[in-house]
Structures are given as structure tokens and as C-alpha cells.
Design goal:
Number of domains: 2
Strand content: 15-25%
Number of strands: 23
Distance between the termini: 48 Å
CATH superfamily of the largest domain: Electron Transport, Fmn-binding Protein, Chain A
CATH topology of the largest domain: Pnp Oxidase, Chain A
Shape: globular
Structural class: alpha+beta
Largest sheet: 7 strands, antiparallel
């Protein structure tokens, strides 16, 4: 079963020796970040800082910072368990008879668990602080890197509703603290939060109501970063992964629902006509994102549990906590990509590529130009459109063996023939692009070339020892002392 809240997950981590309590006083400004960075780089545990300087609220960081902890968070031994459930759920056919209809019952039950459940009250409202009773400066919000523009809320679940449709969106957008009652809202131009604000602007403008949850059960937190189609509610996906609905409660001062078991909730609004300088920020690219103008979030109320826990993260040069969350997404979404593109065997986004810089895809090549078709197909997907470089290889290449990928690709390409470039939207954090949000992308066809692709020479065979000699040496091996 899924964890009821963050506290249950912390208990599970501690029981398995995957969490370290830090009782020494440590400053939220830079010191927590430096400790977390060192620990994450060596594959260390989750950290719970019990005495952050200047606050009586413990700080949890690196909670999802390993494959083992991601498996524990999702309640699986391997990501293939979730992938299998997704395949079963999406393999829906009209039932033809009684047996087929009975087989549909478990699927319908799964679907029923997906929908969020609205409740009247929840632990997140054990303390309600309205205007004049709260200050963001009382929270142990961290400053991550020396040249950051200030302290940043780095793991918020930001809830808004589309003004045109009323559909909910939950995203994870960093929030720079300006003062006791305002923060930045880093809604990049391509994100759904930014689209909601644009939709309101087109209707005459005004205030977009926002609810921000900090610290929830790990699956709900994870769902906020999943690259879902616009019309899919992240809380539905969380319900599917949890195998039980996410309980949601309405905020006190805004018409937005948030997870009832959250540790801390910030309520407020963003005005369509107000922007303020945000940044710099030490980002997951390993570089500082430069200053830019972003919307401003005004806090109207803070609610929290009696003794809340502040969950945060730090990003920077990989590997860090976000890398393991990204790996989980990669593995979980493989069957969905294969549903769309049956030729896909596997894909991989290396940590060093910080996810939007590189994707390696292996395919069953069926016709000339198939690799280029795959590149364009990936660039047509909502989130994958930002992929700076795509490498396509044949199905006998292990996409996670970067040495093998490099060997195959570098042996298989004629650079002028097999590399293509295109212009289009790029990730807003891509500091190398010629313009903000716009630049070039590269595709490399690392597959074996066919005559139909203009290759008229004989393609050579790869080196391989004979099976007879392999078996002979297998028998001799124990005597060799090697």
C-alpha cells in the first residue's frame, strides 16, 4: 500500500537504514545544501536536519535520491511493475462476452482509484495562519548556491486551475522568497502554470488563485514532475500509482484544492500584470540560471500540521536527487512510448545530459529513413520537444551502456550524411541556445545504413569469436589462474 503521508515514508526510510538524522545545528543558507550535495554525490542516505538554524521546523532533503529509495517510494521492487500495470490499463478492448467483461472489472477498479477524493478537513489544517499571523521567513527555506538570488522553495507542489476549463494542474516550480509574504513563481513559458496565467490574461486579466503544498506522500510529490499531457490531472496519476485516491481539501482563502495530508500549505494568488526579477539560481544543468522576469506569488494564508516537516531538494551537477526521479520517469514511461511508437525497443536519458540535453533511442529499423522519422516523432511530443540531441541506434545496442553506444554510433556514422539539425523551441534553461526558448536541435542516425539510404558499399560484420572456441576456453578458464 502507498504511504499515507510524508511521515510514513520517513519511518519506512529510517526502518531500512536509508535516512540519517542530523541533530547538529546547521544553517539553511548554504550549509544544508553543501552537506546534501556531498551526500548525494556519494550515493548517501536521505537527510533529516532536526535543528535548522533559526527555525524549529525539521528539514528533509535527498529523500528520493537513489534508485532504492525511489522503489520504496513507489512501493515496487522494480519499475517494470508499474510499466506492466500501465500496459494492462491501456490495453483496453471492447468486451465481447461474459469472460471478457469479467476481465474488465479489475481495470475498472483501478480507474476508480485514480480520481482524487475531496474531503472536508485534513492534517494540513491543524494550524491556520491568516493575514498578519504568518511570515515565510519563519520557514527553514534553503539557499542552495552562493550566487543564488536568495532562498528558494525548491520542492513545492503548485496547484492552479485552467481559467478556460477549470481543470487542475500540479507542477513543481521553484519559488524565490522575496519577503515575508511574496515569492517568485518560476513558470517557464512552456509550463502549464504559465499557460493558465496567459489564459486568464486573454480573458481580461486579474488574479490567478494558487495553492502550494510542501511535503506530501512521495508518490504525490513525484507526480508533480511527470511529463503528462495537458488534460491529464497529476492527482489522477498519483491515485493510479498509489492504488488509492489522493485526498484533497479546499484551501481557506482561495478556490483551489491541495493534498489533505501535506505538511505545509501556502495559499495565495499571482496577478497577470505583475512581474519581478527572479534569480540567479543554481540549476540542474550545473550552471546558474540567469536573472529574468517572472510572476509574483502573494501569500494570503499559511496552514500546516502541528509539527510540520519542511521537504526540499537541491539541484546542480549530476548525480543528485532529481536524477533518480528522472530515471523513474524514464522507466515508467517506456511502455507508453512503445504504445505510440511500436518500433521503440528502449530509450535512455543519461544523467550527464540533464534529461533535456540527450536521449538515446534503440529501434527495430524497418525501412530507409526510419531513424529520422523517430527523431521527428520524439520532437513532436509535448515535453520531449526540448530534447537537444537525439541518438538513434539499432535494437542490438544497449542504450544504457554508453561505451557501447559511442562505439556503435562512431563506427556507423558518416557525419555529413547522418547528422541532421532543426530549429524549434528549446528548454528555457538552455543557456547555450541562440535565443531564450528558441534554438537548434540535433539528431544522429547511428543505425546501420541500408542501400535504400544511399549506402551501396558492403556493410562489414562485427568481430565475434566462434562458439567452438568460446566453449573450449570456458572449460580451460579455471586452469588459467586469471
Amino acid at each position: 500500500m502507498a504511504y499515507q503521508d510524508l511521515r510514513e515514508f520517513i519511518s519506512a526510510l529510517e526502518k531500512r537504514g536509508l535516512l540519517q538524522r542530523i541533530r547538529a545545528e546547521v544553517a539553511p543558507e548554504l550549509e544544508i545544501s553543501e552537506i546534501a550535495d556531498r551526500v548525494s554525490k556519494r550515493g548517501g542516505p536521505a537527510l533529516l536536519f532536526e535543528n535548522p538554524r533559526g527555525s524549529n521546523i525539521p528539514v528533509l532533503i535527498n529523500a528520493l535520491g537513489s534508485r532504492e529509495r525511489m522503489h520504496l517510494a513507489l512501493g515496487v521492487k522494480d519499475y517494470s511493475e508499474i510499466a506492466g500495470r500501465i500496459v494492462e490499463l491501456t490495453d483496453v478492448k471492447s468486451p465481447q462476452g461474459l469472460i471478457d467483461k469479467l476481465k474488465m472489472v479489475p481495470r475498472l477498479a483501478d480507474i476508480g482509484k485514480m480520481f482524487p477524493k475531496i474531503v472536508k478537513d485534513g492534517p494540513c489544517k491543524e494550524r491556520i495562519l491568516k493575514e498578519g499571523e504568518f511570515s515565510l521567513l519563519n520557514l527553514p527555506i534553503i539557499k542552495c548556491w552562493p550566487e543564488d538570488g536568495g532562498r528558494f522553495i525548491t520542492m513545492p507542489l503548485v496547484f492552479t486551475k485552467n481559467p478556460l476549463t477549470g481543470r487542475r494542474n500540479c507542477g513543481m516550480y521553484r519559488m524565490q522568497v522575496y519577503d515575508e509574504r511574496t515569492t517568485g513563481m518560476h513558470w517557464q513559458i512552456h509550463k502549464q502554470g504559465a499557460q493558465h496565467l496567459r489564459n486568464l490574461k486573454r480573458r481580461g486579466g486579474g488574479r490567478l488563485e494558487v495553492g502550494v503544498a510542501i511535503g506530501a506522500d512521495p508518490i504525490t510529490v513525484f507526480s508533480a514532475i511527470m511529463p503528462l499531457p495537458d488534460e491529464i490531472d497529476e492527482m489522477m496519476v498519483a491515485g493510479f500509482l498509489r492504488e488509492r485516491p489522493v485526498e484533497m481539501v479546499k484551501c481557506e482563502t482561495v478556490d483551489v484544492e491541495v493534498p489533505a495530508n501535506a505538511e505545509i500549505v501556502l495559499e495565495g494568488y499571482v496577478d497577470t500584470d505583475e512581474r519581478r526579477t527572479e534569480g540567479p539560481f543554481g540549476d540542474h544543468t550545473g550552471y546558474y540560471t540567469l536573472e529574468d522576469e517572472f510572476p509574483v506569488f502573494h501569500v494570503t494564508c499559511i496552514t500546516h500540521r502541528k509539527k510540520p516537516i519542511y521537504q526540499t531538494t537541491i539541484v546542480g551537477k549530476p548525480p543528485m536527487e532529481d536524477c533518480w526521479m528522472g530515471e523513474a520517469i524514464e522507466r515508467i514511461f517506456l511502455p507508453l512510448m512503445q504504445r505510440q511508437f511500436s518500433e521503440v525497443v528502449d530509450y535512455h536519458m543519461p544523467f550527464a545530459g540533464v534529461f533535456h540535453n540527450m536521449m538515446i533511442v534503440s529501434i527495430k529499423k524497418n525501412y530507409p529513413g526510419h531513424a529520422r522519422k523517430m527523431m521527428n516523432a520524439i520532437w513532436s511530443l509535448p515535453q520531449a520537444q526540448f530534447t537537444k540531441s537525439i541518438i538513434v541506434v539499432d535494437d542490438d545496442t544497449d542504450v544504457r551502456d554508453l561505451n557501447q553506444v559511442a562505439w556503435r554510433v562512431l563506427n556507423n556514422i558518416d557525419p555529413e550524411r547522418d547528422i541532421q539539425f532543426m530549429l524549434g523551441p528549446v528548454d528555457q534553461l538552455d543557456h547555450a541556445a541562440r535565443l531564450p526558448n528558441y534554438g537548434s536541435k540535433m539528431g544522429i542516425d547511428g543505425t546501420r545504413k541500408w542501400k535504400g539510404e544511399g549506402f551501396t558499399r558492403t556493410w562489414p560484420k562485427e568481430l565475434e569469436m566462434s562458439e567452438e572456441i568460446k566453449q573450449r576456453i570456458d572449460l580451460l578458464w579455471p586452469k588459467l589462474g586469471l
